[in-house]
Amino acid sequence: MGSILRLSDAVSLALHTSIFLAGRPSQLVSVGEMAQSLGVSEAHLSKVLQRLAKVGLVRSVRGPRGGFALTGPAKSVRLLDVYEAIEGPLMSADCLLGKPVCNGRGCILGGLVGTVGRQVRAYLSRTRLSELTGVYGTEGNSEARAGHRRSNRSTRNGRSKPR
Question: pTM surpassing 0.85?
Answer without folding.
Answer: no
